[in-house]
Specification:
The protein is α/β, with parallel strands linked by helices and 376 residues long. It has helices at 14-24, 32-45, 56-66, 83-90, 136-146, 200-207, 213-217, 237-248, 250-273, 300-312, 340-348, 360-375, and strands at 49-53, 74-78, 95-99, 121-124, 149-153, 161-162, 165-166, 173-177, 190-194, 277-278, 294-297, 349-351. The longest helix has 24 residues, at 250-273. The structure holds pyridoxal-5'-phosphate (PLP).
Length: 376
Amino acid sequence: MMIPFNKPYITGNELQYMMQAVQSGKISGDGMFSERCHAFFQEKFGFGRCYLTTSCTDALEMIAILLNIGHGDEVIIPSFSFVSLANAFVLRGADIVFIDSNSKNPNIDVEALEGLITPRTKVIAPIHYAGIAADMDRIIELCQKYDLFLIEDAAQAIDSKFNDKPLGSIGDLGAMSFHETKNIIAGEGGLLIVNNDKYIERAEIIREKGTNRSKFFRGEIDKYGWIDIGSSFLPSDLIAAFLYAQLENINSIQTRRAEIWNRYYGALKPLENDGKLILPHLPDFATNNYHIFYFVCETHGVRTKLMRFLAEKSINAVFHYQPLHLSPYFKDKYKGPELVNSVRYGDCLLRLPMYYELTPDIQDEVIDSIIKFYQN
Ligand SMILES: *Cc1c(COP(=O)(O)O)cnc(C)c1O
C-alpha cells in the first residue's frame, strides 16, 4: 500500500451544505455560505474585510491590481516561495527582486531586506512558510520607513500567529489558500484579506469583473456597469458551502494535525541531536499551525538517497520549492547575488506525509524507515 504525501480530509457535512446551497436557489458567488465564511474569518481571526476567491493565486493577482503595480515597480519576495506570488506581480509588468531565506528557517532573511530597497520598491511580500510566521516586526519597520505596501502570502498560515496577531491580519492585504493540500480545503479556493479599509470598495469591483455589481446587489445603486479593470475572482457558493463545513471543524483538524506533527518531531529529535538532519525552527514570536512537517537534510545527495529509499518503501515524501530565481522562467533574468539559503532549502528540504487520517501505525512506518536509512 502506498503512503501518500497528502490526503484531503472530508469532515462529513460538506455534501449536505452543498445540497443546501443548491436548494437555496442561489449557487453563484456571494450566497449564504460565502457570507458565513466571510463572517467566520472576520470574527475568528480579526481579519479586516474578507472575500472568498477562486484560489490564493487569484487573491494575489487581485492584490497586484489593487495596489496599481505596474512597469518600473519593484516587488521584494522570497526566492524560496510559490510561483503564484511572483506571477501576480509579473503579470502587471513589475520587476521581481528576490530575497534569500534566513539560515534558521525558509522565511525571509530580514537582515538582507534593507539593502534591496530602492526608490522603485513598492511592495514587500513575505510568505509564512509552513504556517510559521516571518519576522514581521522588522518587515513592518522597513515598510513604514520607506512607505511600502506589506502583503502577506498567508496561503499556508491559517490559524497561526505572530506574537498575538493572527497571520493574515498584519499586512495591508493578505491571501490565503484552500487548495486540497492545505489544512482547511475546498478543492481549489482562496481568500483575499483587506486589512486596510481604503481598498474595500475597489476590491469588490475588481472581484466582480470591474463592475459595481456588489453595490447593486446590496441595493445601494439602481444599476451596475463597467467602471474599472477586473475579472471573475469569486467562487460559486457550492465551494463556499464545502469550505464552511471545513471551517466548522477547524479545531478538530488542527488538534489532529498537531498530534501528528509533534509525534514526528519527537521521534526524529534523536537524529537531529546526532547532527543527521535539522528539524523545523520556530522563533519565539511564532506559533505552529502544523501545516507542513519538514526537515532539512545535510546535503542534496542525502536527500535524493532518502527520497529514493522511502519511495522503495512506498512512502511519498516530497521536496519544496525550486528556488524561483533559478527557475527555467527566471534564471536568465536574475541579476542579484547568490541566495545560498534558498538554494540550500531547495536542495535539502524534505516534507513528510501529513494528513488528518494518517494513523499512528502508518506514521510509524514513515518514522522507522527514516531511522533505518540513517542507521545504514
Ligand atoms: C498553496 C500556495 C499558494 C497558491 O494557492 P492556490 O490556492 O493553489 O492558488 C500560494 N502561495 C503559497 C505560499 C502556497 O503555499
